[in-house]
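> example.struct
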């Protein structure tokens, strides 16, 4: 794992705090401490990437793994429907600047979301 010393999600991925519910060679997952749905899991790359805007062409396998992990975890949690959200940048609501997907489920969602 490469990271930034003061990055909260890098510390969680490194096992210095929190509890991982999934990990493999590219990604890790853990439950959100401020859940916005009955099921709210965060899925992050092990590599520190600040936001979706910083994901480059060399990260295509990683991007696929993030989405495939969301699908796999939703199935494991037996979520009948779910939403996957990525906030990119402060104006979009990103508060931790380490790329992460929110896997939300367990309640109805409406459109538009914001």
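> example.seq
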């Amino acid at each position: 794992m490469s990271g930034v010393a003061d990055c909260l999600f890098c510390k969680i991925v490194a096992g210095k705090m929190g509890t991982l519910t999934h990990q493999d060679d590219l990604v890790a997952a853990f439950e959100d401490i401020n859940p916005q749905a009955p099921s709210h899991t965060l899925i992050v790359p092990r590599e520190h990437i600040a936001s979706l805007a910083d994901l480059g062409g060399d990260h295509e396998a990683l991007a696929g793994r993030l989405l495939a992990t969301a699908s796999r975890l939703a199935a494991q949690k037996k979520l009948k429907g779910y939403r996957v959200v990525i906030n990119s940048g402060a104006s979009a609501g990103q508060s931790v600047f380490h790329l992460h997907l929110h896997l939300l489920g367990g309640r109805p969602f409406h459109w538009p979301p914001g």
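> remarks
The helical segments are 8-13, 60-76.
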